[in-house]
Amino acid sequence: MISFTSFPAAFQQSSYAHTRHHPDTKEDMMDVDDLHNFGLQDSKLTCPGEYLTSSQAFMRGHGTYVDNEEVIASVAGTVERVNKLVTVRGIRSRYNPEVGDLVVGRITEVPSVFPGIETSSGVDLATGTASEMESRRKLETGRCPHAVLRNGQLVVVPPILVRRLKSHFISLPCGVDLILGLNGYIWVSKHVKQNEQEGEEGFDAEAVYSNVNDNIDVSTRTAISRVTNIVRILASHFVPLTDALLLEAYEWTVEHEAEATSTLQEDFGDALVASVTTGQ
Amino acid sequence: MFELRSIDIDLGQQGQADGSAVITHGLTHVLVSVFGPREAKMRSQTMHDRANINVEVSVAAFSTGDRRKRSRGDKRILEFAATIKSTFEPVVQTGLYPRSQIDIFIQVVQQDGGLLQACINGTTLALMSAGIPMLDFVCAVSGGVHSTHPLLDLTTLEENDVPNVTIAVMPKTRKVSLVTMETRLHVDRFEEVFRVATEAAVVIHEEMKAAIMARSRTLIASMKTGSQQPGEMEE
């Protein structure tokens, strides 16, 4: 017998609990206007249109607006308060750049004058080089302003998962380097030896500006794709990326003798995240 | 006395979209993906003081009872998209993102009346999951009149037979950002339908808010589990 179901079978994956309540019973939302508890609980959730506080006592920050002397949330996320400033931090939003951030990106356009980026190392931001190479670069104020990224691949994760760390350059002992861009772009590549990386004086222009990949042996390629897949798994489970976590996850996959390809299977990913987040 | 069809909301990730939502009102089933704010594809569309909202609607050929393929340039669909755009323009804080564009792509998978309300509610949810600042929720619902009695949340059959109106309400202020009618409705009946529909929008708001909060809660929880690592640096 053939049975028909309505188009979506069911939202099994849905995180949304089906609340079937009488229209008169309002769900008990949090009372954010309770100012005494404001700073105590670390994550107060709110969503657009929710009253936060009075605008006379507090200043509005990002993610809020003022209407009728009330500070009201404009994004869904957590309420944060710093002294008199009330902000709402959206959970999943586009990357907001700040000065000093390390980003991974691709130069799409090069204006005739290159404004805004000054280099301390004395290396001219050769506009000619920039325009003729459409490869990915990283820009960093201060040390080594930009370099062509090669010998690797790019993974994109939600920007909130990349926290501000002491170093955004991670070298895993498996011969893989990661560059965690704060914009959520992550470059996973073959390990570069330390002396090649920091040649301030004897700046090897050939090595830095080359856009030709080196020869990468099979084991390194496997390691790169394994790390890439781990990043994807962690991102799909919305786990913030740290060097310790990545290393632990990598060791876990090696321990379980998983092929780099099989790591993307769903049950494997669940097991991985479960084991690394419990800190075993 | 008044009843809405069952609402299902899924805010799971859909591909590369910044925000997405699947919403069903009864048998009407709509998928909305939001991209942006991002750089506009066409320079001519950028505005120096605010973001441009671009709405594209595509209706699946199999979504209605009679299989009919509508092209993208269909006048009815373009007007439908323009309606949604004008509904959201006063609510989304476009002034925060000058020279950029917010793309809203709506896929109608199945329709059984109340298509506009489903699209508007889905778009609200998708915009919020994309983290785009908005003044408030926009909750839409359709209403009609059968002889003298108001009805809510009409199906296709009801829509074909009774005069109907779709309204979109911002629940906090009870401001109305859309009222649209394609049929004629007696002016004496309008007020009652409007009042009932506004109340219904508040009920829908509770559902939508619960969905958004539940998603925020799960995401925050999973971010917490990851940050209990010893290697984590304090901010």
From TrEMBL, chain A:
Name the Gene Ontology biological process terms: CUT catabolic process; exonucleolytic trimming to generate mature 3'-end of 5.8S rRNA from tricistronic rRNA transcript (SSU-rRNA, 5.8S rRNA, LSU-rRNA); nuclear polyadenylation-dependent rRNA catabolic process; poly(A)-dependent snoRNA 3'-end processing; TRAMP-dependent tRNA surveillance pathway; U4 snRNA 3'-end processing
Q: Which UniProt keywords apply?
A: Exosome
Any one Gene Ontology cellular component term annotated for this protein: cytoplasmic exosome (RNase complex)
Is Secreted among the key words of this record?
A: no
Domain called Exosome complex component N-terminal: residue spans: 45-82
User: What SUPFAM superfamilies does the annotation carry?
Assistant: Eukaryotic type KH-domain (KH-domain type I), Ribosomal L27 protein-like
Subcellular location(s) of the protein: Nucleus
One Gene Ontology molecular-function label: RNA binding
Annotated K Homology domain ranges read 152-193
**Source taxon at top rank:** Eukaryota
For the keyword Cell cycle, the answer is: no
Q: What is this protein called?
A: Ribosomal RNA-processing protein 4
What's the source species for this entry?
A: Agrocybe chaxingu
UniProtKB/TrEMBL annotation, chain B:
Q: Which GO terms describe its biological process?
A: nuclear mRNA surveillance; poly(A)-dependent snoRNA 3'-end processing; rRNA catabolic process; U4 snRNA 3'-end processing
Q: Which GO terms describe its cellular component?
A: cytoplasmic exosome (RNase complex); nuclear exosome (RNase complex); nucleolus
| Keyword tags | Cytoplasm, Exosome
Q: Where is the Exoribonuclease phosphorolytic domain?
A: 3-133, 136-199
Location(s), subcellular: Cytoplasm; Nucleus, Nucleolus
Summarize subunit and interaction data from the UniProt record for this chain.
Answer: Component of the RNA exosome complex. Specifically part of the catalytically inactive RNA exosome core complex (Exo-9) which may associate with the catalytic subunits RRP6 and DIS3 in cytoplasmic- and nuclear-specific RNA exosome complex forms. Exo-9 is formed by a hexameric base ring of RNase PH domain-containing subunits and a cap ring consisting of CSL4, RRP4 and RRP40.
Q: What is this protein called?
A: Ribosomal RNA-processing protein 41
Species assigned in the record: Agrocybe chaxingu
